[in-house]
Amino acid sequence: MMSSTKTIPPLENGDQLTRAEFEQRYESMSQLKKAELIEGIVYMPAALRFRKHGKPHAQIIAWLGFYAAATPGIELGDNATVRLDADNAPQPEALLRIEGGQTIVSEDDYVEGAPELMVEIAASSASLISG
Fold first, then answer.
1. Is residue 63 included in any domain, yes or no?
2. Closest CA to 101 of 74, 72, 121
3. For the whole model, what pTM was predicted?
4. Residue 100 lies in a domain
5. CA 20 to 30 Å from 67, out of 36, 74, 99, 101?
6. What is the C-alpha separation between 29 and 10, in angstroms, rounded?
7. Terminus-to-terminus CA distance in the chain, angstroms?
8. With contact defined as beta carbons under 8 Å apart, do 113 and 105 qualify?
9. What is the spatial distance between Cα 112 and Cα 7, in angstroms, rounded to a whole number?
10. pLDDT tens-digit profile of 63-121?
11. Residue 37 in contact with residue 18, Cβ under 8 Å?
12. Within a domain: residue 9?
């Protein structure tokens, strides 16, 4: 007898997906730490290094943490997926949003819309977005 259960394929670097497909696959991969959807293409980073990523990431979070603590109405996020539109769901290193500003936090706890600030630590000058 055939099973009617569908297997959700894993995310793979370079997959071309809708945001809904991306989110479904991402949620099914509990061991996955980071994947982003940029213009409908899945990007999954390699292992991260200390000087090129870990240290600057910590410094940005500390700096923005002080700013958020001193600025009423500001929320700081670390590695939260942002639903920008139907083809883009980046997971920036950090984001700042103004409560009641141009973003909302959805019922399923994603930031929707463009935050007031998104920070990405880039150890390369290569761009993910051509244009």
1. yes
2. 74
3. 0.82
4. yes
5. 36
6. 7
7. 51
8. no
9. 28
10. 999 999 999 999 999 999 999 999 999 999 999 999 999 999 999 999 999 999 999 99
11. no
12. no
Tokens of 88: 């883009």
- Can you spell out the DSSP letters for the chain? ----PPPPPPP-TT-B--HHHHHHHHHH-TT----EEETTEEE---PPPIIIIIHHHHHHHHHHHHHHHHSTTEEEEES--EE-BTTBB---SEEEEETTSS-EE-TTS-EES--SEEE---SSS--SS--
Q: How far apart (Å, rounded) are the C-alpha atoms in residues 39 and 19? A: 10
Q: Is the confidence at residue 123, as pLDDT, over 80? A: no
Domain count, the chain: 1
Q: What is the CATH number of the domain that holds 104?
A: 3.90.1570.10
Structure tokens at 23: 């989110």
